[in-house]
Amino acid sequence: MRGREFFLGRYAEMGRSLTGEETAPQAIRVNPLKAADGEVVEILVDEGVQLRKIPYLDHGYEVVSSGFSLGASLEYLLGLYSIQEAASQLPVQVLGPRPEDVALDMCSAPGGKTTQMAAYMVNCGVLYAVDSSRDRLYAVENSLERCGVTNCLVYHGDAAEIELGVTFTKILLDAPCSGNYATDPEWFSVRTLRDVEANAARQRRLLARALELLEPGGRLLYSTCSLEPEEDELNVQWLLETHGVDLEPLGGPGVPALTHVLGSELDPRVSRCRRLWPGGGTQGFFLVEAVKL
Amino acid sequence: MRLLRRLLRELNSTYRQEEADVVRINDKYFTLSPTLRDGLKARKGLVYAGRYLGRDRRLFQPSAPLLEALAGEPGTRKVHVGRDAAWLFACGRDLFEESVEKAEPELILGAHYLVVYGGRCVGYGRYETAGDRHIIRNLFDIGDFLRREA
Predict the structure, then answer these.
(1) Nearest C-alpha in B relative to A168
(2) FRET pair for B66, CA 20 to 30 Å: which of A155, A210, A245, B53?
(3) H or E segment to which residue B89 belongs
(4) Domain CATH code at residue A79
(5) Consecutive H or E run containing A41
(6) Which of B119, B94, B70 is nearest to A80 (CA)?
(7) What's the confidence (pLDDT) of residue A207?
(8) How far apart (Å, rounded) are the C-alpha atoms in residues A48 and B88?
(9) Radius of gyration of chain B from Cα atoms?
(10) A217 lies within 8 A of chain B by CB
(11) Three-state DSSP class for A157?
(12) Looking at residue A227, which CATH number applies to its domain?
């Protein structure tokens, strides 16, 4: 079970008619550890970049047009901003780690959300970052250095098994997922339902571990950039059935998550999660904030 | 640490780091805040910790946060440049003396200087003669972020 027709058919069954041609605009996030929004916007506008503030993001700007690669400018190298798609700026903003938190980024690479967490923590507290790919951790290290992050301990290991000797007040699990076609033109030709199911199983392992590592009252932000309900609503249903958690109602862009999906009726609390379909200025995305009871 | 101390001397920096407070991971050096030090319960798998200072190469390769800290010191040797010169320097080019808008203190042949644009450090180099011109020879610049990932 694969291919454009199959997946677009599933989305239609879920109540969303999509063309399969939707894309995600480029966006940047200003790094408040290094500069104020106004300064960065002024410099980039002077250089001919057209930016539009994204109203629901604290430091996010859509790139309307640019005559040069924003990933190779002086200001980028100085760490004044990062390139980060709009929806992917939401998880950390919703989780809102603070200086007094002991926070964990479970699947850190390539590091955009890790640096964002450090910024919300104002480089205070302790931020742990883990990733299972040593190669991808080099990108995390570079991002931390470039963005001036100084409150982070980075580990190479499988987040589902790693022992750090601490429990956490806030955990971000932006899980490895099947992705979506809005950011990958080859998506329809490479993804199968079997991949989706394998990713969903891996995500449940990570979710279970996250709940073990979280203090009572602690918050877990789980997100994916997958549109597939196995990795989104159905994993949240599993979480509610197997763990002592409640869900925070989320607002902002997107729509409430589905509670009737693929023939299953889900816990009504699942609608507190947020689902972003591609085409509304973002890629496809899903996020849930769970509180450990 | 020997190469780091040498770099600090060359830039006339007063920055001092007690060796006992430095965490070494392979060839990289880091310092940790007391909070971070308390939080460091596991060493297995640790690849990066706290404030990155730089790494041992033939010369010490300073980190961007260390360069930024050094640029903030009043006594370090530095040259101030405009945006175009800063960009060329970040692309790995040497800096012609004519591009230097201000030097602190005066330029001395053989001395090392941080290259600063708008209060932010883009690298460092050595003031040298090249043919009939004087240049800041590029020894390290922040364009390294792109070269590392290439």
Answers:
(1) B39
(2) A155
(3) helix B83-90
(4) 3.30.70.1170
(5) helix A37-46
(6) B119
(7) 98
(8) 19
(9) 16
(10) no
(11) coil
(12) 3.40.50.150
Last residue of a domain, one of A35, A57, A84: A84
CATH fold for the domain made of B76-149: 2.30.130
**Residues near A198 by beta carbon (within 8 Å), at least 6 away in sequence:** none
The answer to whether the CB atoms of A154 and B68 lie below 8 A apart is no
Domain, as residue range, for A73: 25-84
Q: Which of A84, A116, A131 is the last residue of a domain?
A: A84
Q: Which two tokens stand for residue A240?
A: 């509610």
A90 bridge partner residues = none
| Interface contact B42-A156, CB threshold 8 A | no
Strand order across the beta sheet in which A81-83 lies:
A50-53, A60-65, A27-30, A81-83
Q: What is the pTM of this model?
A: 0.95
How many structural domains is chain A composed of? 2
Name B133's bridge partners.
B130
Measure A31 CA to nearest chain B CA, in Å: 14
Backbone phi, psi, residue B9, to 5°: -60, -45
Instruction: Quote the CA–CA distance of B130 and B63 in Å, as a whole number.
Output: 27
For residue B122, which residues of chain A lie inside 8 Å, CB to CB?
74, 77-78
**pLDDT single digits (tens) A165-211:** 999 999 999 999 999 999 999 999 999 999 999 999 999 999 999 99
Taking only the tens place, the pLDDT of each residue in A141-171 is: 999 999 999 999 999 999 999 999 999 999 9
Own/partner long-range contacts of A244-249 (Cβ < 8 Å, ≥24 apart): A244/A292, A244/A293, A245/A211, A245/A220, A245/A290, A245/A291, A245/A292, A245/A293, A246/A290, A246/A291, A246/A293, A247/A272, A247/A273, A247/A288, A247/A289, A247/A290, A247/A291, A248/A219, A248/A272, A248/A289, A248/A290, A248/A291
Residue of chain A minimizing CA distance to B82: A74
What's the CA gap between A41 and A185, in Å, rounded?
A: 30
Q: Domain ranges for chain B, please list them.
A: 2-70, 76-149
Do residue A93 and residue A208 come from a single domain? yes
